[in-house]
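User: Need the bound-state model for beta-L-arabinofuranose:
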Amino acid sequence: MTESIAQAEATSSPLPDPTGGRPVTPTRRTLRPLGLGEVRVTGGFWGRRQRVNGDATLQHCRHWMDHLGWTTNFTDPAGPGSAQRRGREFSDSEVYKMLEAMAWETGRSTEFAQRWNSHIDELTAAIANAQAPDGYVNTAFGGHGRRPRYTDLNFGHELYCTGHLIQAAVARARTYGPDPLLDVARRAADHVCATFGPHGIQSVGGHPEIEPALVELARLTGEQRYLDQAALFVERRGHRRLPEHEAGWPYFQDDIPVRHANVLRGHAVRALYLSCGAVDTAVETGDTELLEAVAAQYERTLARRTYITGGMGSHHAGESFGDDFVLPADRAYSETCAGVASMMLAWRLLLATGEPRYADAIERVLYNVIATSVADDGTSFFYANTLHQRVPTEPVAPDKESLRFGGGSRAPWFEVSCCLPNVARTLASLGGYLVTADAEGVQLHQYTDAEVRTRLDDGRPVGLQVRTDYPETGTIVIRVTETGDGPWSLTLRVPEWVSGAVLSGAVGRRSVEPGTVVVRRAFTVGEELRLELPMSPRWTFPDPRIDAVRGCVAVERGPLVLCAESTDQDGAPDAVDLDSLRIDTGVRPRDAASGATVSGRFQPPAGDGLPYYPSQPPRGEAHPQSIRLVPYYRWARRGPSTMRVWLPKDD
Ligand code: FUB
Ligand code: ZN
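Assistant: Bound-state model below.
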């Protein structure tokens, strides 16, 4: 047993996790993540979303999964393998993600525990019912009348489902303590180790997820074999062990060994989950080469294959990354799950390295993909997140499963509904992604109303209260509510987009630059620090290599990407032609109620043949007018509309 896993939480501290539970608990790290019991989101932008998530989204998921038979697949009286089974081959994973979200919710308060404990117990009993004596559990494979186990490693998703089962059980153990779900997950993990170990099937699952899950189980239980198996899966990948398929080996990241690749490619969610597992194994085994390889791949992916929103994956076909700079706005796929997965990876890299740019990446994807994906009432969602809607969205019936996961309005449910439970587990555990500590003090990475209570490594207590209406305004007030004697450091992230930020308090008043600002002093209870982040709207120009949006400009305000939505322009929404919009970048964007206005004209070219011209197309006369921009996350909430993020410049 390595020293790192021997010191895992189960062997060093009683369960449940005294921090209240954290999604990721590396034993070797630069920063120590605080748990849900140490960071309580009390309101504001994310508090509202957490509340809707717990009050509506989870119940909504439960309703649909019962209605469609995804939960009852586990208790089908005809037994595993019955022809009655319903849902896609990976529907078990959605039940597990919902369970994971419920588990994190129970960690947030006793009220939520009362609400969800009985659901968790009931679903756990159902899953245990479907588990084979050797630990295998999957309702799509392995029973009579069904395909035999592990006969479709490319698309069968068996290991992927097991991974999500393990993640749910880890969340339950950390927030509640060991319970029957953990027993089920351990038996399933033991089965995986026995079946895919050094002398077992010499391959990997087509959709990664088992890798980070096994590492987290190793961290929880102190069992080295789970870590070894995760490392084996990571190392096996990239050697073309999966059967060849029309999607090609890059789709499964089975084309190049993880440590030798230089960019993320293929199916975006698969690539990102694999990267999470690779970082997890790298930090636990001290494999700096692997850690640096994944960090470099992510860096290059951010620099060349990421939308302005932080979204990833530009091809509808294969739900995959495009080549460098293939980032079309009107065909943006940017699956919500890929946004969640990018945040998971950035968080792991932040903990491993302490570099604030990973918190910047989290902020971008949180406000512009994750916040966009879910409706205000928490019961409909985007699967793909386009950056340009050319034809008005159509309303979707609230009781109808949508088949149009590649675009359109937010829908209550899809045949492939991976994204909503993924967002649900993320929002339920969001407190675990905001604040860290190290030997010097505490670091705030994201700003929302929150109460923080933790202990420094030397045992001194620290309490902070964060008050802000960020990102509506950029004022963040941090009040010290508890402190031990002597100096310690409070580190605040200063976002990469900011210019002219100011910090004030007992330390005086000073300008601060993007990155981090560290205040080290003997704090006193009641003292306040005030961070002012100017939120004036600003132009953002694309790299000219992104051909699809060359000649366009976007506007951002603080962490928010803005968009033009037909609803906000003069004229009836179906008469507003956003595609003929031309923006005058000579007039600065003006702040307007959490959005902006810019100057522009609606100027369709005056031709009606083929849309190609021997010279610059002639244009009709049009008067400049004020174009209203709103945060992208708000679009498609006020009836049918068209929308665009990238706005063509007038030339
Ligand atoms: O294959 C399982 C999930 O469904 C993937 O992560 C998503 O991209 C969707 O295809
Ligand atoms: Zn998804």
